[in-house]
Every structure is written in C-alpha cells, then in structure tokens.
Design goal:
The complex is a heterodimer of chains A (242) and B (292). Chain A has 242 residues and is of the alpha/beta class. Chain A is built from 10 helices and 10 strands. Chain B has a single domain, classed as Orthogonal Bundle (ABC transporter involved in vitamin B12 uptake, BtuC), CATH 1.10.3470. Chain B has 11 helices and 2 strands. The longest helix of chain B has 28 residues, at 57-84. Classes of the chains: A alpha/beta (242), B mainly alpha (292).
C-alpha cells in the first residue's frame, strides 16, 4: 500500500532523514519509535506533503505521490493526526467535524450520505456529543485528541498517520484511543503511529520501526524490538545487560 | 447623540478596512501595510469611471471594488506569497515599500486635489438633535448589510467554514483536503473588496486625497490590535469603538475649558495601539483556551 524508497530530507547541510526505505501492507498497524530528534515527525511531514524530500520517492496505492501537495494526498485517503492538535479552536465541535467532511472529494461525500448524521456519529465516537455546540478551545487536551482522531477516522481515509496520539492523555482516554485504533485495524485500515509509550505500541502494533538520527535501525515485531539491544542503546544509552 | 452618529459614519468605513486586515493577519500572520492604498485605488477608480467617463454609479462602484480585489490579489502574488514562508516579517518590509510606490503612483495619476465621487452640498436631515445626510444613512446601512453577508458567508456556508478553518489552522486544514493556497488568494481578494469599499465610502461621503492611505491603515491596525489579532469580528467592533473614542476626543468640551483640535483625531488610533500593546497585547476578544 505504501512504499517509501531512499527518502532523505535535510535542512541546509544537516540531514534529518537519511535514505529511509520501508513498505507498509494494507491493514498493517505499524509503530514508529525513536528518541526525540530522530526524525519521526519529519517523516510524517514528508509523507503527508508538508515538507519536500531532498531525494527519494513515495508510492501510495501504486501511484507516485512524491510531489503531490498535502490536500491532494488527503483526497487520496491519507489522514493525519498532529502532535500539537490539528483542530480549529474557534469553531464548535460540530463545525470541526463538518468542515472535514465538506472537504472530502464529491464522490466520497455522496457515499457518506447525510453529513449531519455523520457529524453526530463522529462526536459519539469521541464521546463528545453533549458538547457539539461548544467551541473546541473549551476542550481538554485529551478531548481534543479524541475529537481529532474520530474526525480523521470518519473522513474516509485508508492510511492514518497518528503522531503521538496518547501524549498528555489520561489512562482512560488512552484506552479509548487504543479501541479506536483497534476498530481501524478490524476495518482493514492501515495505520502508522509515532509513540513513546512502548506498552501501548506493543499492544496494538503488528510491526515496529525504530528510527535513530534519521536512519531506520530496526524493523521487527513488537516483542523482538522490545528485547533488542539496539532499542536499549537508543533509548537508555547503553545495553542494560552489560 | 450626534457624536455617536458621527462615530457610526466613521466606524463603518474603518470596520470595512479593519475587517479585511484582520482576515489577512488571521490567515498568514502577516500585516499588509498597503491596505490603505488599496482603499484609495478602489475609491479613485470609482471616481474616475463615474466623474470622468460618466459610467453609471452602481457600475462604477462594482468596478472600483473589482479593481481593488485585483490589486489585492496581485499584491499577494508578488509582494507576499514569495516571502511570508521565509520569514513572517518580510511582507512587512515588502508591503511598506509597496505602499510608498502606490502613494507615489496615486499622487502622479490623480494629483493632490481632493476628488469627490458625489461632489456638491449633500442634503441633510435633522431631528432628535442629530443631523445626517441620506447618503450617509445609505452608506451605514450598506456597510451593515455587507458585514451581515460576510458573517453569513463565513459561518453558514461550506466555503466560509473552509476559509475559517484555514485562518485558524492552515496545516490541519490542508491535511483534511482543503486547498489552503486557493483560500489564501480568496482571502486576499475579499480583503481587497472590503478595503476598496472603504475607499469608495470616503469618496462618496467626503473626498479622496492621496495622503489618506496611512491614516486608514493605522486606524485599521488599532482596531485589529484592540480586537485581538486575527479576530475579524473583534476588529470590526473595535473599529466602531475607536471611531466613537475619536469623536468624543474632538467633540467634547473638556472640563468646560478647551476642545481638542480635529487635527489630533488620528492620535486616538495611535494611543489605542500603544495602550493595548502595553496592557492587553492579545486584544479584547481573544478567546481563552484550556491548558490541559
């Protein structure tokens, strides 16, 4: 479904991503981990078109999307949840969902049918149906996260790029987010998640990719990655067994 | 009461220009310092068509607003779009330079002589202690209708919601499939229409002179700083409030001993900018949000 080949990105002479290559199959849930500054969010920004790669290519559903603008990638079904909340704070919760549905290509909008009904369903998924008329700025960080994930989920996407969905979220809401991602998995959707919460990643991911200073250092099952020396070295600075 | 009516007349003009400026600031976080000149271009175009070429007034007004929109779009393409992503202060420099160029061009083409779209003595209506001309009533009402239509467009149409989304979170809007580049252009065009409408307003109510642009821009800035940067409705309301303050400043017999000269009227806008930047830099209507 997604093929990334030799992707590099630099700021001036400083490389942020270096020759990153990986493939994602349809329906896979992949965790992307690595220390701060390893290039995880940059990779998401390049995949969703907000940054232009220095070299390399991105193929999505057998189409070359390397040079497509972000809105065109969104129309192809690539949904993004941002680390710093991608919501519209001065709009009501209802409007936050409505505007996302209205931005869909015409054929997808037709398939959804009654948009008002979909808006209601989306807010129910996030458990925010009672606050539909409130401004998004009145929500807590966790609620904003739930609203954003539910909105992305209902926008007819096939590939989801979730950037630290559980950051600053209570354990109860983390479970809600895990349930949402499990639903996506059941529906055959493909998910890439950036996370620092390793138990969370272990619980929901099929595969984990470890990134360090812009390179992929490991790509394996969550169990194998958890036990690997590379991960210990990257996160804790040394192999704890030595 | 007359002061309030005068404030409404002056405020309607300022509201149009401040609304456009707030829009542009809200979306790109940049100031367009040539907006006062766009207002004059709209006004002078209408004057030129109506007075020089005898084009019917409604057609002249529409052409004036359309030309203001065109100039605003060109400003975006040439003086703002290539620069704002590199640094948000660059358009400040480019639009200051542009405002100087446009001032010179306006002066060269239209000369310093005052130009009135509707010259001559205007009929006045008096009653309940106030005096107002029918033209002023029409202009106040037209501005209110204009702002009402803008509110409807922004809050009750799909297109308006997309514009508000881009204004509030450009990147998130793009990630949802909204063409933010197109929306930026549309916002500049709307701000050009609003500014040109303001210029036409001046040309009908009083007269146009090439030196007006700077004072129009400063008053609009005072309104958007007081209203909360990027908050279009806050800016519009504050444009009316600043006009009211201006009218009180020059219209009240202070302590029964002196009047402030009308020449100091513009100082009110400058004082508002200074006071707000010192004590309430986020403006009156910036919404608070939860921290967690």
């Amino acid at each position: 479904m997604l093929d990334v080949k030799g992707l590099s990105f630099s700021i001036g002479n400083q490389p942020i991503l270096s020759d990153v290559s990986f493939s994602v199959k349809e329906g896979e849930v992949i965790g992307l981990i690595g220390p701060n500054g390893s290039g995880k969010t940059t990779l998401f920004n390049v995949l969703s078109g907000f940054l232009n790669q220095t070299s390399g290519s991105i193929t999505y559903k057998e189409s070359d999307i390397t040079n497509l603008s972000p809105y065109k990638r969104a129309h192809m079904g690539i949904g993004r949840v941002f680390q710093n909340f991608g919501i519209f704070r001065e709009m009501t919760l209802e409007e936050n969902v409505q505007v996302a549905l209205e931005a869909l290509p015409k054929n997808q909008k037709r398939e959804l049918g009654d948009l008002k009904k979909v808006v209601k369903e989306t807010l129910e998924i996030a458990g925010l149906q009672d606050s539909a008329k409130k401004k998004a700025s009145s929500l807590s960080g966790g609620q904003m996260r739930l609203l954003e994930i539910a909105r992305t989920l209902k926008s007819g996407n096939n590939l989801f790029l979730l950037d630290e969905p559980t950051a600053g979220v209570s354990p109860k809401m983390t479970n809600q987010i895990a349930d949402m991602i499990s639903t996506l998995k059941k529906d055959g959707k493909t998910v890439l998640i950036i996370e620092h919460d390793l138990p969370f990643i272990g619980k929901i991911c099929d595969r984990v990719i470890v990134l360090d200073v812009g390179h992929i250092v490991l790509s394996d099952t969550p169990q194998n990655v958890k036990q690997s020396k590379e991960l210990q070295e990257i996160y804790f600075g040394a192999d704890p067994t030595t | 009461m007359q002061l309030v009516i005068n404030a409404f007349i002056a405020g309607s003009l300022a509201a149009l220009i401040a609304g456009g400026l707030a829009f542009v600031y809200g979306i790109l976080g940049v100031f367009n310092l040539a907006l006062g000149q766009i207002a004059l271009i709209g006004g002078y175009t209408t004057w030129w068509l109506y007075q020089v070429h005898s084009v019917p007034l409604p057609v002249s007004i529409i052409c004036g607003m359309a030309f203001g929109a065109l100039v605003s779009w060109l400003i975006f393409e040439v003086f703002i779009n290539p620069f704002y992503k590199r640094h948000r202060f660059l358009p400040l420099v480019t639009t200051i330079a542009l405002s100087m160029i446009l001032d010179a061009v306006i002066l060269m083409v239209f000369r310093e002589r005052p130009r009135s779209i509707l010259p001559g003595v205007k009929e006045q209506i008096s009653g309940f202690g106030i005096t107002i001309s029918p033209v002023q009533i029409v202009m106040i009402c037209t501005t209110l209708v204009f702002l009402f239509l803008l509110a409807y467009f922004l809050h009750s149409t799909s297109f308006g919601r997309k514009i508000r989304a881009v204004t509030q979170n450009d990147i998130a809007a793009s990630s949802l499939g909204i063409r933010s580049g197109l929306m930026h252009r549309i916002i500049f065009i709307i701000s050009g229409v609003l500014a040109a409408a303001g210029g036409i307003y001046i040309g009908i109510d009083t007269s146009l002179t090439p030196v007006l642009a700077f004072s129009l821009t400063i008053k609009a800035y005072a309104a958007i700083i007081a209203g909360g940067k990027g908050n279009i409705w806050g800016a519009i309301l504050c444009a009316y409030l600043i006009s009211l303050l201006e009218q009180f400043a020059i219209g009240v017999h202070w302590f029964g001993t002196f009047y402030i000269s009308a020449g100091y009227q513009q100082t009110v806008a400058l004082l508002v900018i200074i006071l707000f930047l010192l004590w309430k830099p986020n403006g009156l209507f910036v919404s608070s949000s939860r921290k967690a």
